[in-house]
Design brief:
Strand content: 15-25%
Structural class: alpha+beta
Strand order of the largest sheet: 1-3-4-5
Radius of gyration: 15 Å
Length: 145
């Protein structure tokens, strides 16, 4: 999950989408790899290809939306909205990784945001997670050991 925050920081600091604003990428996870910056021909590749391929909701504008997702180390990835967020704020981001199958060894769902703190929690239906919690600790999320 920390590689996602590193990629987001790179996107923010280097204005990777060329919009003249230092903001985070809020579209999807796959875009951090597949988005082609203005005036370039190659994708920005800020994350590993495998993570981009594991995005369960890839957006338009890159090739990952045209094919079914493939798990990365037994996990799916997706971008999240923040609690109370009606419009996506360019000053924030959130993401989660959850297991393809709920098993003893693969039972944790992980979340991260612009605060660069990774939390985990056992969720029976992790695919239902859509919102990054307003206060992860209060909602039962814990930092990994």
């Amino acid at each position: 999950m920390r590689h996602l925050t590193a990629a987001q920081l790179d996107f923010l600091l280097n204005d990777r989408d060329g919009n003249g604003v230092h903001d985070f990428w809020r579209g999807d996870i796959a875009g951090l790899y597949g988005l082609v910056p203005p005036g370039q021909t190659d994708p920005m590749a800020l994350i590993e290809t495998g993570v981009a391929e594991a995005d369960v909701r890839p957006g338009a504008g890159h090739s990952f939306g045209a094919r079914p997702p493939v798990p990365y180390w037994g996990h799916w990835f997706k971008a999240l909205r923040h609690a109370g967020e009606t419009d996506l704020s360019p000053n924030r981001f959130a993401a989660c990784a959850y297991p393809v199958r709920y098993q003893y060894r693969r039972r944790w769902t992980y979340i991260v945001s612009e605060e660069n703190v990774v939390y985990r929690k056992k969720l029976r239906e992790p695919w239902r997670l859509e919102i990054y919690p307003a206060d992860p600790i209060v909602e039962g999320w814990k930092k990994p050991d």
